[in-house]
Amino acid sequence: MKFTHELLPQRVVFDSYAAADHVAAEVERLGARRPMLISTGTSIELEGAVRHTEVVMHVPVEVAERARSSAASHGVDVLVAVGGGSTTGLAKAVALTTGLPIIAVPTTYAGSEATAVWGLTEGGRKTTGTDPRVLPRVVVYDASLTLSLPVPLSVASGLNAVAHGVDSMWAPRADPINRAFALESIRALNAGLPRVFDHPSDVEGRENLLYGAYLAAVAFASAGSGLHHKVCHVLGGMFNLPHAPTHAVVLPYVTALNEFAAPALAPAFGAPTALEGLLRLANRLDAPRSLRELGLREADLPAAADGVLAAVPGNNPAPVDGARLATLLHDAWEGKDPR
Ligand code: NAD
How far apart are alpha carbons 96 and 7 in whole angstroms? Predict the structure, then answer.
C-alpha cells in the first residue's frame, strides 16, 4: 500500500429536527453576528439573518454578483446555505471572492457541502475550480428538511450520490481511504433508497441517504472526477441536461466498463456484480434510463463523444478510445441494457 491522502477540515453535525438550533449555535461558535440565509422553499428560522432567495442552477455570474453585493451592503459575516447543490453553490460563489465562512444545511443528496469545488456559469459556459475558501466550515445535516423532496428528485439525487461513491473507486486519486468511504456510502444508499421510495416520510430512510451522500461526497472530493463524472460534466455543460438524472442514466454504462477493477463494489450492493446491483436498484426505484428521455438529441452524440474523449482520465481502468465512447454514449442515449 502506498498513498498520500488529504482530509478536508470540516465540522459535521448530524441531528434530525434540530437544524435551526444547531445553526444558531454554529453561528455563535464562529463568532459571527450577521448571517446571510440563502434558501428557496425549504428553510429554517434564523434570527437576525439577511434573507437571500435568488438561487439559480449552475450559478450564473450575475446571480453570484447580486448575492455578493447584498452580502457586502448588509455587513454579512457568515453564509448559511439551506438547500440543494444550487444553493450551496451560490454560497460558494460568494465565499470565493469574500472569504466568508459557510454553514451548509443540505436538503438534497448532491454532496456539494463536502467539497471545495465551486462552479459558475457565464454566457452558457460553466467554469469549475477548487479553492479551500469555498469548503463549508460546518455542515448541519437534518434529515427532516429532506422529507419534502419529491420521490423522483430523491431518487435522482440519491443516485447522484451513488455515482460519487462508485466513481471514487477508480477516479484519478482513488486510494484505500476513499474506497473505504465509498463502499460504506454505497451500502447506506443502497439500503436507504428503496426505503425512501416506499416510505418518503420515514426520517430514518432519509438519514441513511444523507449519511451515505456525505461519505460519497468525501470520497469524491478526495478521489477526483473519474470517467463517469467526466461524461456527465460534458453532457451537462454542452446540452444543459438535468444534473442528477444524467448521473442516474450514465452510471450503469461506466460501471459495466470499469467494474472489473473494483471487485469490492458488488458486495457493497449486495449483488453478484456491481452492474447487477445498480440495475436492480434503478429498476426498483423507477429511475430514468435513457439520455433520450432527458432531452438529448441523437445528432448531439458525436460532439458529446469528442468532448468526453478530451477529458478521459489517463488512469481509467478500461482503455477508452473514440469508438468505445461513441458506443457507450449511444447505448446510454437509447437506454440499451448495459449488460
Ligand atoms: P438543486 O439544488 O438545483 O435542487 C433541485 C430542485 O429541488 C430545486 O428546484 C430545489 O428548489 C428543490 N429542492 C431542494 N431541496 C428540496 C427539498 N428538501 N424539498 C423540496 N424541494 C427541494 O439540485 P441538486 O441536485 O441538489 O444540485 C445540483 C447542482 O449542484 C448542480 O449545479 C451541480 O453542478 C452542483 N453540484 C456541485 C457539487 C460540488 O462539489 N461543487 C457537487 C454536487 C452538485
Answer: 20
Q: Which of 315, 132, 120, 131 is nearest to 230 (CA)?
A: 315
Percentage of the chain beyond pLDDT 70 is 100
Provide the β-strand partners of residue 327.
Answer: none
pLDDT in tens, 147-156: 999 999 999 9
290 CB-near residues (< 8 Å, 6+ apart)? 249, 332, 333, 334, 335
Q: Which of 87, 243, 246, 294 to mutate to test the pocket of ligand 1 (most atoms within 8 A of CB)?
A: 243
**Which pLDDT belongs to residue 243?**
84
Q: Tell me: do 161 and 299 sit in the same domain.
A: yes
pTM over 0.85: yes
Confidence of residue 145 (pLDDT cuts 50, 70, 90): very high
Residues lining ligand 1, judged by CB closer than 6 Å? 40-42, 57-58, 83-87, 89, 107-108, 110-112, 115, 117, 119, 145-146, 148-149, 153, 157, 243-244
Which residue, of 114, 146, 178, is where some domain finishes? 146
Q: Which domain holds residue 236?
A: 151-334
Residue 125: CATH number of its domain: 3.40.50.1970
Question: Residue 230 has what pLDDT?
Answer: 94
Q: What residue owns the CA closest to ligand 1's atom 15? A: 107
Residues 137 and 82 in one domain: yes
Average pLDDT, the chain: 95
Residue 1 inside a domain? The answer is no
Per-residue pLDDT at 85: 95
Indicate whether 238 pLDDT > 90. Answer: no
The CATH number assigned to the domain holding 188 equals 1.20.1090.10
Q: Rounded to whole angstroms, how far apart are CA atoms 7 and 232?
A: 25
State yes or no: pLDDT of 80 exceeds 90: yes
